[in-house]
Amino acid sequence: FYLLDSSGSTQHYPHQVEAGRQVEVLIGITNREGEPQSYRIEVWGHEQQIAVLYPFHLNDAESVVVTVPVQ
Hints:
The protein is mainly β. The protein has strands at 2-4, 23-30, 37-45, 48-58, 63-70.
């Protein structure tokens, strides 16, 4: 997997987010397992679950980039 900022770059994704401020992070996943796979994304901060995206399925060599709002 990989993380990108809201413009699709690795230059400015947030390392910290102020309480009450919402930002978007792009999470990319590429299946390199040699067969179809199912994935689940969980985003956690300060011992609290922020977002859950599931399930989604990728064929071998298929990629997806999802937008996750983080507050």
